[in-house]
Amino acid sequence: MSINVGDRLPEANFVKPGSDGPEPVASGEFFKGRRVALFSVPGAFTPTCSAQHLPGFIERADELKAKGVDEIACTAVNDAFVLGAWSKANQADGKVTMLADGNGDFAKAIGLEMDASAYGMGPRSQRYAMLVKDGVVEQLHVEAPGEFRVSSADHLIDQL
Fold it and tell me: Are 41 and 76 in contact (CB under 8 A)?
C-alpha cells in the first residue's frame, strides 16, 4: 500500500552529496518544520529524467519558492555520487537538493517502489512529486507507468 495525502512520511535515511563527500540525512529532520517539494525519478541520467523532470524543477525553482516551498528535493534509487554528478551536469546545485535512496528503502517504505529489471535497472522508485509540510504529505502526484505529466514542476505549481 502506498502513502497517501495526510500521511506522515516514515523515518528513513537518505544520503546527500556534499562538498566533503556523502552526508547522511534523516528524513524526520529534513522535512521538519518546513514545506518541501519532493520529486522522485527512476534514475539519474535517464532520458525523461534528464531532459524534462529535473530541468523543469530547476527552471521553476523560484516560482515554487514564491508559492511557499522552502526547499526542492529530488530522490532516486541511485547512490550519492551519481546524484552529485547528475546535479553538477544539470547545474542544479543551489536549486534542487539531491537525496540518494541508494537501497530503495524510502521508496519501499512509502510503497512507491517499482521493478525496472526489464530495463536492466533493478528495483527503483516510481516517478512522482509530492508536497510535504512538516513531514506530512500535503499533495501526492504519482505517474502512470511510462508517463510524465502529474509529477512535473509545471503541474505542481498549478496545484499550489
Answer: yes
116 strand-pairing partners: none
| Helix, strand, coil share (%) of the chain residues, nearest 5 | 30, 30, 40
Question: What CATH architecture applies to the domain 13-159?
Answer: 3-Layer(aba) Sandwich (3.40)
Q: Which of 12, 49, 61, 92 is catalytic?
A: 49
Contact in structure between 91 and 107 (CB atoms under 8 Å): no
Q: What is the mean pLDDT of residues 79-95?
A: 96
Residue 49 falls in the annotated catalytic set: yes
Domain boundaries, the chain: 13-159
The pLDDT, as a whole number, for residue 74 is 98
Average pLDDT over residues 3-22: 96
C-alpha cell at 50: 534528464
pTM: predicted TM-score of the whole model, two decimal places: 0.95
- Tens of pLDDT, residue by residue over 125-136, are 999 999 999 999
Distance in angstroms (rounded) separating the CA atoms of residues 31 and 48: 27
Alpha helices by DSSP H, 32-104 = 47-48, 54-59, 61-66, 80-89
